[in-house]
Amino acid sequence: MSIVLYEYYNRFNLLRRRNRKYAKTAPLQTAEQKMQGLYLQRQYLDELVDQGHVNQTIATQVRENINYNEIVVASE
Known about the structure:
Elements: H1 2-22, H2 31-50, H3 56-75
Helix pairs in contact: 2-3
């Protein structure tokens, strides 16, 4: 589980670093952007499951975390 989350974390950090090259100051994230990020996480997780890199048990746990984060963002 931690390997999957670590890989997840690394990919998103890579995207953030690439985006910082183009923006000198980091703008505040809107709720819509946060929700889009959660949708992308869910999509990437589905790809990992389809490729057989993640089993259903781990995928369920990660989806629960994504769902929780979605609730938190929606309530902000």
